[in-house]
Amino acid sequence: MNMTNKPAENLEIKKIILLLLSVLTIFSACKKDDAERNSDRLIGRWNVETVAYIEYENGKETERNQY
Predict the structure, then answer these.
(1) Per-position DSSP letters for 42-67, written without gaps between them
(2) pTM higher than 0.85, yes or no?
(3) Which domain of life is it from (predicted)?
């Protein structure tokens, strides 16, 4: 029996197994986006009722206009 190639073969098999486990872990760890995530959007026609313009200087309000 030739035992000189045995450790090299075991090392190659371990590398392949480690690579396969790494790839499986990476692909199974990714979470897929849920289609229901966008179901809470407000869809429709909207009208602007008011617009407020507020100006600040040094953290204090200096001017306020509401249209």
Answers:
(1) --S-------EEEEEETTEEEEEEE-
(2) no
(3) Bacteria
Residue 17: count of CB within 10 angstroms of its CB:
10
Instruction: Answer whether 64's CB lies under 8 Å from 54's CB.
Output: yes
| Distance of alpha carbon 7 from alpha carbon 22, whole angstroms | 22
Mean pLDDT, range 30-44, rounded to an integer? 68
| CB 54 within 8 Å of CB 66 | no
What single letter denotes the amino acid at residue 31?
K
Q: What's the DSSP call for residue 36?
A: G
Class of residue 46 by CB neighbours under 10 A (exposed 0-12, middle 13-18, buried 19+): exposed
DSSP alpha helix (H) spans, 1-67: 6-29
Assigned token pair, 46: 């909207």
Strands 60-66 and 52-57: antiparallel
